[in-house]
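Whiteboard transcription, Tuesday session. T.W. wrote the structure tokens on the left side:
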């Protein structure tokens, strides 16, 4: 089991923990990995986290946050293969991974039910579902706005009951690998509780395996619905050669800014009024009416924004739902105005508001919900009272005040590459959860939670079956990682030695985030991306001397800046490669094209784009960062396996341990 050694390195005493597996992160995927490893028999494990209550899983949601699963009702004609097809058809997704996510969906869902996640079922035990975006078969389920929070709480209860070691208050600042075998070997972390004690500041983990559950790269954006406690840590994985996959593909959507929350589902389907004003509160107007000729076009677009919450380049033209995102962005980012949702008053000139102007689907939905009455707040309270209470609990009463919104970064469909066991090209390193780039261009709503549970289960199964060996002796480990460890400690001590009364860490962070939200989010241009790449590279090249911290307490933020710079540089290089290879717009972003079309003639040039015809859905972009430069490879997606498996053959392979390979 886990061993503790003390080693002197560069005149500093460093704590060194040796164990089989370290799980980095305490969200839904990380906690499940730990729980699964323990249940599979591998108990020499520990969780390393900056804070058990931090991260996206614990602090995010939507009107009724969706968990995507196979349809589990008596009349459903769903199948594992059909579910895999729905995942695969989103484009740029490997079919073998889609099949795994579909095959383990029910298993992972029922495990959550068994540990106390209260997904609703009928009197007969059927777990009913509903349709989410890009989902044809009513596969969504939910326990309300805080589904992922409940999942993490139930999983944490399992961790506590099993007495699994948790290093709480530790920030990982480096991944180590054996450069000869290209194998992950350990981690370097800062003990956030002992930063001022040089002899306790650094902690090393010597481990056979790393399960990397650090979440998406939230920290590279300024306009974001990610919780403030979520930053991501993809950069230090890129640094040791872990490949990126589909880094161009992220999700953006309308969210509130005072209290960060996705405004999907019921928040849109009750048809709120969109209001714009100057920063000082003057010139209040319902701005959508300036762009729509008829109330039916506007109301339908707002309603479908609930179903189709993520920004989608295919849903802009012809007054599609994503024209709403464009118009909100135009008011906030281009005109520098503030935009609000007003639930107190009906849209489109109160006296002229008429439910009969809605399309058949929107009218039918509200009619079946018994919500063809009143103002938006009345409909919200009737259809989804918890969605109202969520804001009330967080100091915003939608009955009496408007809700400020923006178009925010929300989820990364791309990320670090992994195989069907979620192992990366650097062996013994398993990215799970949002940090893993298993999704393609589009994905059904709620698949992120399913993918996190499936991926962490697969990683745990593989580790428990194949990578059971103890880590090397501490002296051997330190000899393998000597140069890498020395480099990071030298950098840290240099920052501490050069500390000053005037820190520039947060100023640099804010600039980094602003440029990404302005040029590298859902509205992109080749010129803007090239500018980010140039600036990020310049800052990376001089980070050892240019970063100034006020005291050792800012050391974690300095290392975070370094990780975010690497992440931003790699992501933007991938985006530029896409632009230079294809140049057209797809997925959750549009790329400026001077020869393209404007969605509406009243909009400025920045929105002129050319929509992709085939979206290059059969190709996956892979990115490798080495020696400060990025290289790229475009490969064909792997098809969905469609093999006829004879039970006796599978049974034999399973008994012989040939399934896990």
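and on the right, the sequence the group agreed on:
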């Amino acid at each position: 089991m886990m061993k503790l050694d003390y080693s002197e390195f560069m005149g500093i005493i460093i704590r060194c923990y040796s164990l089989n597996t370290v799980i980095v992160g305490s969200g839904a995927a990380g906690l499940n990995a730990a729980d699964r490893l323990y249940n599979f028999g591998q108990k020499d494990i520990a969780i390393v986290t900056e804070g058990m209550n931090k991260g996206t899983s614990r602090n995010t949601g939507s009107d009724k946050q969706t968990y995507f699963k196979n349809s589990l009702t008596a009349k459903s004609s769903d199948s594992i293969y059909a579910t895999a097809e729905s995942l695969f058809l989103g484009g740029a997704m490997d079919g073998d991974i889609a099949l795994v996510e579909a095959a383990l969906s029910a298993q992972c869902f029922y495990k959550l039910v068994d540990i106390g996640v209260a997904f609703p079922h009928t009197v007969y035990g059927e777990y009913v579902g509903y349709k989410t975006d890009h989902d044809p078969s009513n596969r969504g389920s939910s326990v309300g706005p805080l589904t992922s929070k409940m999942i993490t709480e139930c999983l944490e209860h399992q961790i506590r009951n099993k007495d699994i070691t948790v290093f709480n208050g530790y920030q990982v600042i480096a991944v180590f690998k054996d450069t000869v075998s290209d194998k992950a070997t350990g981690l370097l972390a800062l003990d956030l509780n002992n930063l001022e004690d040089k002899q306790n500041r650094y902690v090393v983990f010597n481990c056979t395996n790393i399960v990397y559950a650090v979440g998406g790269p939230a920290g590279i954006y300024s306009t974001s619905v990610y919780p403030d406690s979520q930053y991501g840590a993809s950069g230090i994985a890129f640094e040791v050669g872990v490949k990126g996959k589909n880094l161009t593909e992220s999700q953006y959507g309308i969210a509130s800014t005072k209290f960060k929350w996705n405004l999907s589902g019921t928040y849109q389907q009750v048809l709120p009024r969109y209001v714009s004003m100057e920063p000082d509160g003057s010139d209040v107007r319902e701005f959508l009416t300036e762009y729509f000729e008829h109330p039916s076009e506007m109301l339908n677009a707002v309603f479908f924004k609930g179903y189709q919450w993520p920004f989608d380049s295919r849903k802009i033209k012809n007054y599609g739902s994503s024209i709403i995102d464009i118009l909100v962005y135009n008011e906030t980012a281009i005109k520098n105005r503030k935009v609000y949702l007003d639930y107190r008053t009906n849209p489109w000139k109160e006296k002229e508001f008429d439910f009969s102007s809605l399309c058949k689907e929107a009218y039918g939905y509200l009619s079946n919900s018994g919500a063809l009455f009143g103002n938006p707040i009345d409909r919200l309270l009737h259809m989804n009272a918890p969605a109202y209470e969520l804001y009330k609990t967080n100091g915003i009463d939608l009955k009496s005040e408007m809700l400020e919104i923006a178009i925010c970064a929300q989820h990364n469909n791309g990320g670090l590459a992994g195989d069907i066991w979620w192992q990366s090209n650097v062996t013994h390193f398993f990215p799970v959860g949002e940090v893993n780039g298993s999704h393609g261009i589009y994905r059904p709503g709620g698949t992120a939670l399913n993918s996190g549970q499936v991926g962490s289960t697969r990683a745990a199964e593989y580790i428990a079956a194949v990578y059971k060996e103890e880590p090397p002796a501490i002296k051997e480990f330190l000899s393998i990682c000597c140069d890498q460890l020395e480099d990071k400690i030298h950098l840290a001590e240099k920052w501490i030695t050069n500390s000053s009364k005037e820190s520039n860490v947060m100023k640099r962070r804010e600039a980094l985030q602003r440029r990404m939200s302005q040029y590298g989010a859902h509205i992109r241009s080749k010129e803007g991306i090239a500018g980010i790449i140039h600036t990020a590279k310049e800052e990376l090249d001089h980070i050892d001397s240019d970063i100034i911290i006020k005291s050792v307490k800012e050391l974690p933020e300095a290392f975070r800046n370094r990780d975010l710079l690497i992440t931003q540089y790699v992501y933007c290089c991938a985006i530029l490669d896409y632009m230079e290879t294809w140049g057209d717009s797809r997925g959750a972003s549009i790329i400026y094209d001077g020869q393209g079309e404007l969605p509406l003639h009243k909009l400025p040039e920045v929105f002129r784009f050319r929509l992709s015809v085939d979206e290059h859905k059969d190709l996956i972009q892979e990115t490798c960062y080495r020696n400060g430069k990025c290289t790229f490879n475009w490969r064909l997606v792997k098809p969905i396996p469609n093999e006829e498996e004879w039970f006796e053959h599978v049974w034999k392979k399973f008994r012989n341990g040939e399934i896990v390979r």
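Someone added at the bottom: DSSP finds 19 helices and 21 strands in the chain.
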